[in-house]
Design brief:
The protein is of the alpha+beta class and 197 residues long. The protein is built from three helices and ten strands; from the N terminus they run E-E-E-E-E-E-H-H-H-E-E-E-E. The strands form three sheets. It has a five-stranded antiparallel sheet with strand order 1-2-3-6-10, with no helix packed on it. Strands 7-8-9 form a three-stranded antiparallel sheet, with helices on one face. Strand 2 and strand 3 form a beta hairpin. The longest helix is centred in the middle third of the chain and has 15 residues. The N and C termini lie close together (6 Å). InterPro entries: CTDL_fold, SUMF_dom, SUMF_sf. This is Sulfatase-modifying factor enzyme-like domain-containing protein.
């Protein structure tokens, strides 16, 4: 794996160089995706993903910092900020300008890879429903996947919009399509950064 220049590696963690937001590595290994008739084995391309969805303060910082220097975003440990699709794309564009590299919303499959790990588990934490599941990380250390808000993801093939995870759909394979005309739908923002091989 080659760590992109936009990331700083320290003691097994990765942070975006300018904002300080933490990332996790989803390695290029075989994963299970889908369920039932759609279950299939795929190889992850290897990518970095935000450890947690963006909080209100990190979101506000990104929008302000994309206009000029204002320090770093700081720890992103607060609750995720609810955003419309347009706001989610705006925040990813702002972070991309700040970091000098393309950060974007994950595809539905990338979100599932980050949540599920290589063993085909049903939930980010394992195969049985848990009361404390929202506080548990995926096998790759990605957190907040099934917290209160679902998270935005895109469909590369169709340009569709998805909401993945959240308290109402904790299964790793759960996602619901959001109509492009639904400007009121809200989700959290989790960015991804592709690795250079």
């Amino acid at each position: 794996m080659s760590v992109p220049e936009a990331l700083v590696a320290q003691e097994g963690t990765y942070r975006l160089r300018r904002s300080g937001l933490e990332a996790r590595w989803v390695p290029a290994v075989d994963h299970w995706l889908g369920t039932g008739a759609t279950l299939r084995r795929v190889r992850s391309p290897g990518f970095f993903v935000a450890k947690v969805p963006l909080s209100r303060s990190a979101l506000a910082w990104a929008l302000a910092a994309s206009q000029g220097p204002v320090g770093t975003a700081g720890p992103d440990a607060e609750q995720a900020a609810p955003c419309t699709w347009a706001q989610a794309e705006q925040v990813c564009a702002a972070l991309s300008r700040i970091e000098g590299v393309e950060l974007r919303l994950p595809t539905g499959e990338a979100w599932e890879l980050a949540a599920r790990g290589p063993d085909g588990r049903l939930f980010p934490w394992g195969n049985s429903l848990r009361e404390d599941g929202a506080s548990r990380a995926s096998p790759w250390g990605v957190e907040g996947l099934v917290a209160s808000l679902p998270q935005w993801a895109r469909d590369e093939a169709t340009g569709g919009r998805w909401l993945c995870g959240g308290r109402e759909q904790p299964l790793c394979v759960s996602r619901r399509e959001v109509a492009t005309t639904d400007a009121a739908a809200l989700g959290a923002v989790r960015w991804v950064l592709a690795s250079r091989h």
